[in-house]
Design brief:
Length: about 220
Amino acid sequence: MIVVLDPGIGNLHSVLGGLRRVGREAVVISDKEAWDNLRKDADGSVQGVILPGVGAFGDAMTQLRLSGLVSVVEQVVASRIPLLGICVGMQLLFKVSFEHGEHPGLALLPGQVVRFPATAKVPHMGWNDLTSVQSHHPLLQDVAIGDFVYFVHSYYVQADEASDVIAAASYGGIEVPAVVGRGLVYGTQFHPEKSGKVGETILRNFVRLTELERAEVSSPW
């Protein structure tokens, strides 16, 4: 089972549509009570969780806190359930954002979110090609340098650890982290659900990762 977290900050329908195109339905959870009920009723069968997001970082974190979903994300990570953040959802994985002030994030990955410099046109919106790809990473299987994906953002991640950036794009003279990953925590700055066949490949890879992780957790060996 794939769960999509919905605190009211994401383009929910496009994400659900993207999952359907790769053959998976998802359960939508909007608060901690719904999550607790699902975990009780589903007997631990949640395989993966997606956190989509659009809009401002600070507003998104406020909604996550009010809905109790910060605690849910913490449970997801502690339970070794794969987590995928999309767009602002990826930015929320990091320690802090300086979008309209200073706002703490989920701090699952070290780094900060900052605005593009004045020399770059914002938002970074539209199709852009990937300039670096760790193609050996299971999330990026069959994804290559030069593949185009769809971005919409005015702020970007500065990761503290270069190894957390598994794909990048170039914009405004800056190498922009396009995909991040550490352990079972992943994120895409672009919208895979709007990125055609390349995006579908990444969503399919994420689904495959959730199935593999579930099999390992369930194995008596």
